[in-house]
């Protein structure tokens, strides 16, 4: 058995100092250490000890094992005070910049090309020196420093490619990796592209207490729903919250970023009354006919790409005769049947294809084909009778979300979850992550959410 001495600083004191620092927007360990030296509030909480910034950073980095039970303890206190509701839960993600540069991101192929460019630049410096022996000592020193920097960067890429496996996306294609923090990912936000993590949180609508929190890097938002809900149920079991039934079922809302057939199938067995919108639900709502309000950043970008472009024809614009199994395109040209019982989104369809000679000379080509010039005729498919009878979970959710009750329940989502992220990132200034690696970043994100919950608890006691 290895014997170790006491910690240099009391863990309880360190935790209080860190939570106090985060609550005041001091997320840098250096700034927290400085505050312990000259801020009377921090001096009082710390007992007038001045921990070094490396001790603070190290303490946060090792919190990943202790943060889960601590998070649950605070939730139990919140529940005892009656702060956790049983009416509605909402899930969403908050994209935050990580302690990694997006300039060091790329697929293995892209990183390999970058390494070659760096090596060529380094070689050009040597060639220039060989061709110009009369360079001054000052210029020669600068060039050597630049060469050393280029070689160091090239070696960094070489080491990364040799020690890591290439990441593959959901479709099996290579996706970008990051050399500085391989667990992070490039993400598009309203303020541009960042290298960071997506902090997923689930909270209730009564006092906006966060019940589940986890940070995800190179994982799509759709893939976070199942583990998040599983973890939520574990927290509810610890709080001794029974899943009500019938009309008292807890409602669960999420935006279109979480909508998928697999997720809706999972949520159908979850015991929640689920409302998850698709990315077309606003178009079907007459209240948003002339609105430019977007549910997600993806929806906003998709709308901007469509601006100024003619509406593309959909299957409803084609003349399909189910009895004779024939089809004519919007221009009146006959199409040939290219497949029966074709699988599409887990449904059986009949597929038709336009003749290439007709499509090439069609005056409606811009409204029908996405990327002229074309190499094949336009394809369109129609659901078979059996597929129509067997509605997918996505189709069922569309019917539910478009009902007056569904729209009313889903409209409560924004007021439930968005103020939480506003409080964390804007009011508290916890708008970026200072650590690297999935475990460490996840612990820091949970500490951010812990600060939010403690503040709610504090306000309830006044």
UniProtKB/TrEMBL annotation:
Pfam family membership, one: DDE_Tnp_1_6
Domain Transposase DDE: 329-457
Domain Transposase InsH N-terminal: 3-60
Source organism superkingdom: Bacteria
Coiled coil stretches, renumbered: none
PANTHER family: TRANSPOSASE (PTHR33408), TRANSPOSASE DDE DOMAIN-CONTAINING PROTEIN (PTHR33408:SF2)
Record's protein name: Transposase
